[in-house]
């Protein structure tokens, strides 16, 4: 199918604004005062990892990327060539060590079992590799404890080149005191062990709230225009979702809308059908709660969100016989708003927007 046909399957699409992405990259750099590892895991937080990484690499001078899985890393390597540094932030299954090292993906080493497994592979293939050493300063997910013996580590695993030492904040968006405690532990570790390689601690909220004393930072969500909590950071939203009303009907007072009749009209109403539903990542929790924006008017969702369609109230929208455009996500109805309605965070909302919604890129 041609791009045109794919886009015309349904009038629902996500517009990805690459200039805004570039703006956010610059914000992340200037706030952190260092270069960044651009985090593009989970398909670039739902924006399309390849396109985002390619743009950052070619137009913004980003040389380091962070991914969650070997597959994400392999695809990026194939697409961007040999030069970019690709950091794997998570766990790698032993069946994938070949893919990991032959693609020069930089794994995080976070305990002796993993270290031995990687190191045996390198010995067997008579080679060395860059790695990230991951220190657990309080997230209690992955990482060596800060009292680990760094010198012994380097002696025991001579085929590792520790090019990066990192730790991760657990509460950078909600608890400054705990974050600073983690920062002190990490700084002390670096100092005690005379670490000369690159170091990083701060994710997006960390960058916004804490002074960066390390040589790199690892922004994710802020590159896409969101940050949890109050802040003064001037970010631009990268994704907007638009659609069109595809069907309009009038209903009478007392009539009901959608599955299980969870909405009853209390007057004569105009109902519009919009082709987006929970299979697209438009949560069923938005039933009777969310709004979409049509011709400058916020239109409540009526009744239950279906798998592929959602009904909205067009009663107050001047229609003049046209099927109007609908803003579903954007500056007026943000991912934070979606998150509030679905009792989650913007991260989950964004990476939950399914592949069925075509991404259209605008430079
Ligand atoms: C996801 C992730 C980040 C980016 O976090 P944001 O809050 O999106 O900025 C940074 N570091 C690690 C280890 C991560 O897993």
From TrEMBL:
Keywords tagged on the record: Isomerase, Pyridoxal phosphate
Positions annotated to bind substrate: 141, 307
Domain Alanine racemase C-terminal: 238-362
Pathway: Amino-acid biosynthesis; D-alanine biosynthesis; D-alanine from L-alanine: step 1/1
N6-(pyridoxal phosphate)lysine, modified sites: 41
GO cellular component, one term: cytosol
PROSITE patterns: ALANINE_RACEMASE (PS00395)
SUPFAM superfamilies found in the cross-reference section: Alanine racemase C-terminal domain-like, PLP-binding barrel
UniProt name for this protein: Alanine racemase
């Amino acid at each position: 199918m041609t791009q045109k046909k794919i886009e015309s399957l349904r009038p629902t699409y996500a517009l990805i604004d690459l200039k805004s992405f570039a703006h956010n990259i610059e914000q992340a750099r200037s706030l952190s005062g260092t270069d960044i590892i651009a985090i593009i895991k989970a398909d670039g937080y739902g924006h399309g990892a390849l396109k985002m990484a390619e743009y950052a690499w070619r137009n913004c001078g980003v040389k380091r990327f962070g991914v969650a899985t070997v597959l994400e890393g392999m695809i990026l390597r194939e697409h961007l060539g040999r030069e970019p540094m690709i950091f794997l932030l998570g766990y790698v299954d032993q069946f994938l060590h070949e893919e990991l090292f032959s693609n020069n993906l930089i794994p995080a080493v976070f305990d002796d079992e993993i270290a031995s497994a990687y190191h045996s592979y390198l010995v067997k293939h008579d080679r060395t590799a860059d790695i990230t050493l991951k220190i657990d300063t309080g997230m209690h997910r992955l990482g060596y404890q800060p009292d680990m013996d760094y010198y012994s580590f380097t002696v025991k695993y001579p085929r590792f080149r520790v090019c990066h030492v990192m730790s991760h904040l657990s509460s950078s968006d909600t608890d400054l005191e705990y974050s600073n405690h983690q920062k002190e532990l990490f700084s002390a570790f670096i100092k005690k062990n005379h670490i000369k390689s690159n170091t990083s601690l701060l994710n997006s909220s960390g960058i916004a709230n804490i002074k960066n004393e390390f040589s790199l930072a690892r922004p994710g969500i802020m590159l896409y225009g969101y940050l949890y909590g109050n802040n003064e950071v001037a970010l631009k939203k990268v994704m907007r979702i638009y659609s069109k009303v595809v069907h309009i009907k009038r209903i009478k007072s007392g009539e009901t809308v959608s599955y299980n009749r969870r909405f009853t009209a209390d007057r004569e109403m105009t109902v519009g059908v919009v082709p987006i539903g929970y299979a697209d990542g438009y949560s069923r929790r938005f039933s009777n709660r969310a709004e979409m924006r049509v011709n400058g008017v916020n239109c409540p969702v009526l009744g239950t969100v279906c798998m592929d369609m959602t009904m909205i109230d067009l009663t107050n929208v001047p229609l003049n016989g046209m099927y109007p455009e609908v803003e579903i996500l954007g500056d007026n109805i943000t991912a934070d708003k979606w998150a509030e309605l679905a009792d989650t965070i913007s991260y989950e909302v964004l990476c939950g927007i399914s592949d069925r919604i075509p991404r259209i890129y605008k430079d």
